[in-house]
Amino acid sequence: MLRLHDIAVTFPNGVRAVLPVNLSVPKGQFLVLLGPSGAGKSTLLRCLNGLVKPTQGDVTVEGLGSIFGDARTLREHRTHTGMIFQQHHLIGRLTALQNVMIGRLSAHSTLRSFFPLPRADRLLALQSLERVGLIDRALDRADQLSGGQQQRVGIARAMAQQPQIVLADEPVASLDPATAEHVLADLHRICREDGITAIVSLHQIDLARQFADRVIGLANGRIVFEGTPSQLSQSILDQIYLAAPSRKAAA
């Protein structure tokens, strides 16, 4: 269970990126954050692994407690939390396999990571590529792959961590609709098979309806909807996408 307790973020320029949010995410749930650009989805998502430290509030994980309690707890949380980015964040000159093996670095000490990783890690990376249908491209450079294939490598890299939680920040925003659906289907399937909790930010309403167990609608940094995909009526979508902006901090 992942819990957000009154999480809020105000940037130094006074913009309130996230207003106080309380949220519980059960183990194994595929949760979609839905909303327009600037709604606070990415900021909220990055609070969940400490890439952004909230101005107020806390994030707790069952078995760990507060992820901001100390550096060791945050490091432990990140070890078990995979991150998938919109722009892949792959190293183009490395092979798909080498990029996936980067996901194994957190399982080793800093000193150990300077040496070739164990054979077991290589096998796990190959298995992760096989699960996203790219075992035949394992030795190809990442910059020789299509956008959809690169994003699948990003998914495989996250899965090589053997995560308990996966955070995906607009993972299919740069892909065409057909490829986006296939990539998100891969992520959804693997999370289902492994019982992984997934929190995914999306723009695409149709993909949220197709894959989400639960949807959180964000507008202007606040939750304006929480429910099932079947409850995404036009009036709800208007609340999410047509809300008037009000992001400056109070004087």
Describe the structure in your own words.
This protein is an alpha/beta fold and 251 residues long. The protein has a single domain (2-241), classed as Rossmann fold (3-Layer(aba) Sandwich). Helix content is 33%, strand content 24%. It contains 8 helices and 10 strands. The chain has helices at 41-47, 71-79, 96-101, 119-131, 147-160, 177-194, 205-211, 234-241; strands at residues 2-10, 16-25, 30-34, 56-61, 65-66, 81-84, 165-169, 197-202, 214-219, 222-227. The strands form 2 sheets. It has a 6-stranded mixed sheet with strand order 6-7-8-3-9-10, sandwiched between helices. Strands 2-1-4-5 form a 4-stranded antiparallel sheet, with helices on one face. A hairpin with a 3-residue loop joins strand 4 (56-61) and strand 5. Helix 4 crosses helix 5 (147-160) and helix 5 (147-160) runs parallel beside helix 6. The longest helix has 18 residues, at 177-194. The protein is globular, with a radius of gyration of 18 Å. The protein starts with a strand and ends in a 10-residue tail after the last helix. The model has no long low-confidence stretch (mean pLDDT 91).
